[in-house]
From TrEMBL:
Transmembrane domains' residue ranges: 49-68, 88-119, 131-151, 166-186, 198-219
Gene that this sequence comes from: Gdpd5_1
Organism lineage: Eukaryota, Metazoa, Chordata, Craniata, Vertebrata
SUPFAM superfamilies linked: PLC-like phosphodiesterases
Primary location group: membrane
Record-given protein name: GDPD5 protein
GO cellular component assignments: membrane
Organism: Aegithalos caudatus (Long-tailed tit)
Segments forming domain GP-PDE: 233-492
UniProt family annotation: Belongs to the glycerophosphoryl diester phosphodiesterase family.
């Protein structure tokens, strides 16, 4: 009888096979190599490439956060591209999807690498993933650079977002450090030299200590004592309710009123025969069907059309076709029919509507271009409509135009005079300014408080996102101009609102729990 002795048992490693397969395309066991104690986790070439993988992860994360927090201005970004390209498309949404996909891809590669290190496997990134890493790194860096050049105010938006998201970003960063403790500890234990262990563990502990202490320098107006929160900011519909109806139309303003808006904002131009009407763009191409009615005049300034010609245009069908906002809900059949029958709205009708519902009005006035018959008479014409035709209650008018303010104050006392930029309190009081209308990136709780002490209120535009509205609320803003009255009206309290005691508990518990888990991982 011949007895055969089993010399070696083959051990299946399905988990490691999957890790190495997805990371290196090495699905067979003989293709893989283990890292011997005290040896480097990969070849010199792979060691040089791994920092690029980490850099791609960091830059893609920064860009995804930066672009995600810029959602408030997506419509402005798409409108900018429309002006340059000549057709409407939701480029902002495409960029967001691409950024999310690339970040998910590079995050998966990094997680696979960490798991392989934890299992003692040598790293070898497949050439296709190396190309993908370079693409992610290049896309993220070039996109961040383009944002810094073309959209400089976006950096201010990101800084503002930190005031409400920083406490939660801190918790997320601590959680990532806890997850990283596992591969760091295993790799340090396998190192046979103290210097190597210090090189591995030292930076990790330094970053961890920094994250533990960073809340000491953190500020958020939404971290405040109970009972110190001011009233909810009033909501002024930006061109009405442009997420629910075509902008600057009767339907749009009625939607704002229907959803409880406190005021209406619009833009005023003057037709060639002297009729003030509502239009934001220089031309009629984006918000009317001029290509169908006057195909040879699509580039012509809106102010060079007579009122009779303007009345022949439809101002609503473009809205149903282009869907100008990300996340727009579907309209009811009745709303679709109403939108399809909207026309260009006159200033007189707008003011009568606001007066009948007791709503504040604020408008940007566009001076007619050269060779326009009303170029030097436009202010008088607009004042005639306000004072004689519509006869709106004067305290409802927030007069913004600064060019002839003293003249307007003399002929139309009672307007609430509003300034479109920050200025010393003394200068504002000298010119009888009672309100500031500021871009939201100028938001500062200190400035709001300083102006409020002089009975000067602040309005910020354009505020669409709940987090930004919450920040304005916590900072003490009196009102905001928004495209999303229907969404912000339902907010009962600011997002991320907490007391200092609640935040301290969250901070201390996070640090203590993470310190315990990391110590446990290193001990085991």
């Amino acid at each position: 009888v011949v007895r055969r002795r089993l010399l070696q048992r083959y051990e299946h490693q399905p988990f490691i096979s999957c890790l190495a397969g997805f990371y290196s395309c090495r699905w067979k066991r003989y293709q893989r190599e283990r890292t011997e104690p005290g040896k480097c986790c990969c070849s010199m070439r792979e060691c040089m490439f791994f920092p690029l993988l980490v850099a791609a992860f960091c830059f893609s994360l920064v860009f995804l956060y930066t672009w995600g927090e810029g959602k408030n201005d997506y419509n402005g970004f798409d409108w900018y591209n429309y002006g340059n390209l000549g057709f409407w498309f939701l480029w902002s949404l495409v960029i967001l999807i691409v950024a999310a996909v690339l970040f998910a891809y590079i995050s998966l590669l990094l997680v696979l690498a960490m798991c392989l290190l934890a299992e003692g496997q040598q790293l070898y990134l497949h050439w296709s993933h190396k190309i993908g890493t370079f693409l992610v790194l290049g896309f993220s860096i070039s996109s961040l650079f383009a944002l810094s050049i073309l959209w400089r105010d976006h950096r201010k938006t990101v800084r503002l977002s930190f005031q409400v998201t920083a406490p939660y970003l801190h918790v997320g960063a601590i959680a990532i450090m806890v997850l990283l403790a596992w591969p760091v500890a295993l790799h340090a234990i396998r190192a046979d030299k103290k210097v190597t262990q210090v090189v591995i563990v030292g930076p990790y502990l330094a970053i961890l200590l920094f994250l533990f202490l960073i809340p000491l320098g953190m500020y958020s107006p939404c971290i405040r004592e109970m009972g110190t929160l001011g009233p909810k900011p009033a909501l002024i519909g930006h061109r009405g309710a442009p997420m629910l109806a075509p902008e600057n139309t009767e339907m749009s303003f009625l939607k704002t009123i229907e959803h409880g808006g406190d005021g209406l904002e619009t833009d005023v131009a003057i037709s060639y025969d002297g009729v003030p009407f509502l239009m934001h763009d220089d031309t009629l191409r984006r918000t009317t069907n001029i290509q169908e009615v006057y195909p040879n005049d699509t580039g012509k300034a809106a102010s060079f059309f007579s009122w009779d010609a303007l009345q022949k245009l439809n101002a609503g069908t473009w809205f149903l076709k282009n869907k100008p906002f990300v996340g727009m809900g579907s309209l009811s059949k009745a709303d679709q029919n109403q939108a399809m029958n909207q026309s260009i709205y006159t200033l007189s009708s707008f003011l009568r509507l606001a007066d009948s519902h007791n709503k504040l009005v604020i408008f940007d006035l566009y001076r007619p271009p050269e060779k326009h018959p009303y170029r030097n008479l436009w202010i008088r014409k607009i004042l005639d409509v306000i004072l004689k035709e519509s006869k709106i209650k004067r305290h409802l008018v927030l007069w913004l135009h600064n060019g002839v303010r003293s003249f307007v104050q003399s002929v139309a006392p009672g307007f609430q005079h509003t300034m479109g930029r920050k200025a010393p309190v003394e200068d504002l009081l000298k010119h009888n300014i009672v309100k500031l209308n500021l871009v939201y990136t100028d938001m500062s709780s200190e400035d709001i408080r300083k102006y409020a002490e002089a009975n000067i209120t602040t309005n910020f535009y354009v505020v669409n996102e709940p987090w930004l509205y919450s920040l304005a609320w916590c900072s003490g803003a009196h009102s905001v101009t928004t495209n999303a009255v229907h969404l912000l009206k339902d907010l009962s309290q600011p997002l991320f609102l907490m007391t200092p005691q609640q935040y301290n508990i969250m901070w201390i518990l996070t640090d203590l729990t993470s310190a315990f888990l990391i110590s446990l991982i290193f001990a085991l």
